[in-house]
Amino acid sequence: MHWRLLGYGMFAVEERTSGELVGRVGLMLHPDWPLDGPKVEIGWTLQRSACGRGYATEGAKASLTLAFNVLDLPQVFSMTRPDNVRSRAVMERCGLTQRGELDFHGWHQVHYAIDRRDWPPHDGQVPPTKIRAVGEL
To answer: pLDDT by residue (tens digit) across 61-115?
Structure first.
């Protein structure tokens, strides 16, 4: 639905050598996001076996490139539980900064955001990205 209606959505994350599906990463619209500003989130979900291998960071940076360079969004946010240290580290590696905490859909969340003017991050490290179409080898 997201891709067809909005021109963005989640990407499948595949293990590099086997091609096994190990998660997803991408942009999601949250029309019910209670804070002012854009309501587009960068998010990811990975199998435990894929954590710590750079997939979330690589996919998030590719998604942020899409958000700012193609979709021309003014800002993107991300959220997680306060104790999710790994996700918070991915957000920070991608240049997002903590903006506050709130309760959203019954969960206490910490939220981060990045504005277009702050992209790419100061370290300038945005990896080249190969996005394949479904069925493309």
So the answer is: 999 999 999 999 999 999 999 999 999 999 999 999 999 999 999 999 999 999 9
48-84 per-residue burial string, b: 16 or more CB within 10 A, e: under 16 = eebeeeebbbbbbbbbbbbbbeeeebebbbbbbeeee
Angle at 33 between CA 10 and CA 23, to 5 degrees: 20
- Residue pair 57/25 in contact (Cβ under 8 Å)? The answer is no
- Tell me the three state secondary structure of residue 85: helix
- Is the torsion defined by CA of 18, 20, 23, 29 positive or negative? positive
